[in-house]
Write a structure and sequence with these properties.
Length: about 475
């Protein structure tokens, strides 16, 4: 925590800070101890533990690569989990709970045979109601499976023999019948599990309903919401900027023209079997961003602590359950450069050519807008940017179509995939300077230049390739002399 003094025009520095950890409820249970995982059959594991003090039930989850299976609630101190593929190192997570919440999880591990590629994933999932039953159908695309597992969300609801292409559920099973869009089918054999086949029943790709505080991405499959807190510790919801693409969107806090957060969801399934979440913000306020896959029910949350520029969100492991055949059918894959996390994933190389960073109109002396030049502040400020990868390639940033007189966006490889949010604000009445803010949703190296056409002054900002870049928050960027302020 930090303490600041403030008045209507400025805020002091904080002399010192104190760090603390948020504690769980004092009556929540203690973590379990003596957790063990033992093979009691070729496809069965027994998980045992000593109960945590104060617990009255347990949640147990088995994980293997893209597959996981949850059992809840349990009231004993051991459980046999059957139907595990023999290939792979499993992680077992146990959390005790009571009416006051859950304790931190405890983990155990168990390897069942050598891990290798499992069978091909089921495809063409469909769902029909027949009389007093509902039937889930799929196409068996492999010839070496030992069976199929059907899951609702993460809970196993059926374990079926090989060569099966249907599962029937009575209409009395209201949980399954009411949520068919959360059903997944895995094929498995002695080597491991396939990718999930996913029932694409939610229209058109998900169930996100956009409103002033809800951003919907990737055909309404992903729902994004955020909350933020001001210096007075007052909370509010981020507001969606009514300009976006299928991949990328924006939030503002105080002013609809002063954009604060860029967030996007990209299809990385062809690269690492994941959907990716990337984001950037030009604020040092506290915020929380929640991203939900409305088709699978998974969610991820991202925070920024108050008083520090937010680092880029580069989560290339975000949604491992989102890459089934039906879930991503027809979805465009990400194209990314060879830098940082992207180079490790061997993504496609960019095709943009390198040009000059900024341009000025010689006749007017003001910013001359162009494909690679962003003009802000009624043409007073010109901005340009280049990106660099770990292997030294450089790529010119191009201006996105959306923008205001205060804020704009750059992209590098795809006009739908916005990469950098930049803005210039008029702080002349506060400290005699224009303020520059910038944030990038990438781990490429960046070279940003901001030029003042009135005074001829310029500032340059750089980040290093291979690590998420912190936001640029420069409240003394350019002096307020030689012309009227930009509003």
């Amino acid at each position: 925590m930090k303490v600041f003094a403030s008045n209507p025009t400025a805020r002091s520095e904080s002399a010192e800070s104190e760090t603390f950890r948020w504690r769980r409820h004092p009556l929540a249970p203690e973590p379990v101890t003596d957790l063990t995982a033992t093979a009691v059959g070729p496809t069965t594991a027994r998980i045992s533990w000593t109960g945590g003090r104060g617990s009255d039930h347990y949640s147990v989850t088995a994980r293997l690569e893209r597959w996981y299976h949850s059992i809840w609630p349990l009231h004993g101190e051991s459980v046999d989990i059957e139907g595990l593929a023999r290939g792979g190192r499993y992680t077992f997570e146990v959390k005790p709970g009571n009416e006051y919440g859950y304790s931190p999880p405890s983990w155990g591990h168990l390897t069942l045979g050598a891990r290798s590629t499992g069978p091909r994933a089921p495809s063409d999932l469909s769902w029909v109601v027949e009389g007093e039953a509902a039937r889930l159908n799929w196409k068996d695309t492999s010839d070496d499976e030992l069976g199929f597992e059907v899951q609702l969300r993460s809970i196993r609801v059926a374990l079926l023999p090989p060569n099966t292409e249907t599962a029937v559920f009575p209409l009395t099973n209201e949980t399954v019948v009411s949520q068919p869009h959360f059903l997944r089918v895995f094929a498995y054999n002695e080597r491991g599990f396939s990718l999930p086949g996913v029932l694409g029943a939610a229209p058109p790709g998900g169930r996100c309903e956009a409103d002033a505080e809800t951003l919907c991405l990737r055909d309404s499959r992903f729902e994004v919401r955020m909350r933020w807190r001001n210096a007075a510790r007052e909370y509010d919801a981020g507001r969606v900027v009514p300009a976006g693409t299928n991949d990328s969107g924006l939030f503002h806090f105080f002013d609809s023209e002063n954009w604060e957060v860029l967030i996007k969801v990209l299809n990385g399934c062809a690269i690492n079997d994941r959907m990716w979440v990337l984001g950037a913000s030009t604020t040092d306020l506290w915020y929380r961003i929640d991203v939900k896959d409305t088709l699978m029910g998974d969610s991820r949350s991202y925070w920024n602590e108050p008083g520090q520029p937010a680092s880029a969100i580069v989560d290339t492991e975000a949604f491992p359950l989102a890459c089934g055949d039906a879930a991503t059918a027809g979805a465009r894959s990400v194209e990314s450069p060879g830098g940082g996390a992207f180079s490790r994933l061997a993504a496609a190389r960019a095709r943009a050519s390198v040009r000059g960073l900024v341009a000025t109109d010689e006749a007017t002396g003001r910013c001359k807008a162009g494909p690679a030049t962003l003009c802000l502040g009624s043409g007073r400020f010109s901005l340009g940017i280049e990106a660099s990868t770990l292997d030294g390639e450089r790529h010119q940033g191009l201006v996105a179509r959306a923008g205001t007189d205060k804020a704009g966006l750059f992209w590098f490889f795809d006009p739908e995939n916005w990469e950098v949010l930049v803005k210039v604000l008029d702080g002349c009445a506060i400290n005699g300077h224009y303020w520059v803010f910038a944030a990038s949703a990438t781990d490429m190296g960046l070279d940003l230049r901001v030029a003042d056409a009135v005074t001829g002054a310029a500032k340059r900002y750089g980040t290093t390739a291979g690590q998420p870049a912190p936001a640029i928050v420069d409240t003394e960027a350019l002096a307020c002399v030689g012309g009227a302020g930009a509003r």
